[in-house]
Design brief:
Number of strands: 8
Strand order of the largest sheet: 4-3-2-1-5
Helix content: 55-70%
Strand content: 5-15%
Number of helices: 18
């Protein structure tokens, strides 16, 4: 039975493949015969125009003239607005779109009032729309010849311009009801094929520039950089598949969606470059003083643009499927709008928190980060934990709200998560102990990021603080990770100030008063050093005799310095003490050795 069912399925699949191949073969045959007879179709089209009272030559000149007027008017309006208000790149793009819409509306009003022939009016309005939109796209691409991307943008403008010219011809053929083979010929060889070849050529010729553009702000080896490296090849694959899709539609006799597909292609091609342009603007805002709010708005605007592109693509391609399934478009659009608004609010909060976290993030020496970042403050210590908790809360709140919007009861889920969390807490008391101890350490401000501390088990500079542990880097390099519950007593060597005491052994007959004066002189010299005086709080001075050890005097000196900055001062003092005592015939003697005596 199983073998028979598999045989039946294979036969059905073979029959379907055979029918599809026959459909393709018959469609290609019909299209080729139509193309070869397009000369007669063109002659019939011209005769039809003459019979309707149109002069073909005069009509062609009129169409060319109105396309030229629409192009010049769109360019003039956009450039006058941009030059007057000095619009930046993103606002310039909006200005070009507004200028195209203004020209289209003005042309519609003029054509409605001046031309009574509805067929001619519709044809001319189609020409105005295509010319204005092509101008909106092509002219900004051809500006800025000093840019290294100008040649690539010029090649794209040529591709779009040639396709726009083919669309003008195709629109006129459709309005005056030219034969299907003639329209098929123009759609293939005046729109689809030139656009596909020229766009693919532009991306392949300038693939390194495209990769460089899309890699803005990304690290080597990151997902974005890898995607940017293959993006030119993806574009070539997409435009070729789009061409094949249109030709397949025309071959099997389905209603072609060439216009929708062309619009979708333009959105897909422009999407990554719009994203990079907005990201550049957001980085400029973030780097400026007090630009957290503006940077968060620009980063949220990136999501708005991406969502708009996805929404247009969904409306073009998915909404017709909803009609077939029987789902109401209004309900889907309303729910999608509600979810989109929620996503934008959460994205804004997320971006603002991320920018603030970057502001307070501690920097290592030489780290090329934001100039206003603070190092070693209490905020830089507690901040990363608060940021992590805030982001987790945003994600949880957003996910639960989306489920509520979709009509899903979330209370069983919340109850289940609460019970699960309680079970984890009871089963991992050590983890709870570490977390609670860490919170108390941070509340007590026992240590901060970048400070040098010593615990019962390790010592070093605080390099990383997580929810349950702290990582200390020893001066020799090793990193010790200690859970908060095992830290015990903490000694912090990096708070406010430190008093450094130094011992020097001299001969028993040394003049102690002379040594005191020399130490005072050394302290004045060190205090006058511009590289050291900023960290020196009290100058180096003698404290007199500290001890007598087997025929030697132990003289003690001290100074007060900022915590963590005393080592350079110590080196300078030791060097000056050695030189000054030698110049004044005062010899430093070694520490006496204790040799154990043998028993008798």
């Amino acid at each position: 039975m199983a073998a028979d069912s598999r045989t039946d399925e294979l036969e059905v699949a073979t029959a379907m493949l055979h029918r599809f191949s026959m459909l393709i073969e018959n469609g290609l045959t019909a299209r080729l015969s139509g193309w070869f007879s397009s000369g007669g179709a063109w002659h019939d089209f011209i005769q039809g125009l003459k019979a309707a009272g149109y002069g073909p030559a005069l009509l062609a000149l009129g169409i060319a003239a109105i396309c030229l007027v629409a192009t010049v008017a769109t360019a003039a309006v956009a450039r006058s607005i941009i030059s007057k208000f000095k619009a930046r790149p993103l606002l310039s793009a909006i200005t070009w779109f507004a200028a195209a819409l203004l020209v289209i509306l003005a042309s519609w009003v003029l054509l409605l009032s001046l031309i009574s022939d509805s067929v001619l009016r519709r044809a001319l309005l189609n020409c105005v729309v295509i010319s204005a939109m092509a101008t909106m796209i092509c002219l900004p691409l051809t500006t800025g010849r000093r840019s290294i991307f100008w040649r690539w943008r010029r090649d794209l403008a040529v591709a779009i311009g040639i396709a726009a010219g083919g669309l003008v011809v195709l629109a006129c053929l459709r309005v005056w009801q030219a034969a299907d083979p003639l329209r098929d010929l123009f759609a293939t060889f005046a729109v689809s094929l030139p656009f596909t070849v020229l766009v693919a050529t532009a991306y392949l010729r300038h693939r390194r520039l495209v990769t460089r553009t899309l890699s803005f702000g990304s690290k080597a080896g990151s997902l974005r950089r890898k995607l940017a490296a293959i993006w030119p090849w993806l574009v070539v694959a997409v435009v070729i598949l789009a061409f094949v899709f249109i030709q397949l539609d025309l071959t099997i006799g389905r209603p072609t969606r060439g216009g929708l597909l062309l619009l979708s292609l333009l959105l897909v091609l422009a999407g990554p470059h719009l994203d990079v342009a907005i990201e550049r603007r957001s980085w400029q805002a973030v780097r400026s003083q007090g630009g957290e709010l503006t940077g968060a708005l620009w980063r949220t605007f990136r999501i708005v643009v991406a969502s708009s592109i996805l929404a247009v693509l969904a409306i073009l391609w998915l909404l017709p499927i909803l009609d077939v399934v029987g789902i109401s478009r209004g309900t889907v659009l309303l729910k999608a709008a509600e979810i989109l608004m929620l996503v934008l609010v959460i994205a804004f909060c997320w971006n603002w928190v991320a920018i603030m976290a970057a502001r307070i993030r501690p920097r290592a020496p030489g780290d090329p980060q934001v100039a206003t970042a603070v190092v070693g403050t209490r905020l830089t210590t507690v901040g990363p934990l608060l940021v992590g908790l805030t982001k987790a809360a945003l994600l949880t709140l957003g996910a639960l709200t989306v489920l509520v919007m979709l009509g899903i009861n979330v209370w069983p889920l919340i109850t289940g998560l609460s019970i699960f969390g309680l079970a984890i807490g009871l089963g991992s008391q050590t983890l709870v102990k570490d977390v609670v101890a860490g919170l108390f350490f941070l509340v007590d401000d026992a240590f901060r990021h970048g400070e040098y501390i010593e615990t019962s088990g390790a010592k070093g500079t605080v390099e990383r603080i997580s929810l349950r542990s702290v990582s200390l880097r020893h001066p020799r390099g090793p990193v010790a990770t200690i859970p908060f519950g095992q830290i015990g007593k903490i000694q912090n060597f990096s708070r406010e100030w430190v008093i450094e005491k130094m011992l020097f052994r001299v001969a028993l007959d040394t003049d102690v008063e002379a040594v005191r004066k020399l130490f005072k002189k050394i302290g004045q010299e060190v205090a006058a050093d511009p590289e050291l005086n900023a960290d020196l709080l009290e100058p180096f001075k003698s404290q007199g005799i500290a001890a007598l050890e087997e025929g030697t005097l132990v003289i003690r000196g001290k100074y007060k310095a900022r915590a963590g900055r005393q080592f350079q001062i110590r080196k300078a003092i030791l060097s000056k003490v050695r030189i000054t005592l030698a110049e004044n015939d005062i010899k430093l003697v070694p520490k006496p050795l204790h040799v154990p005596q043998m028993g008798g």
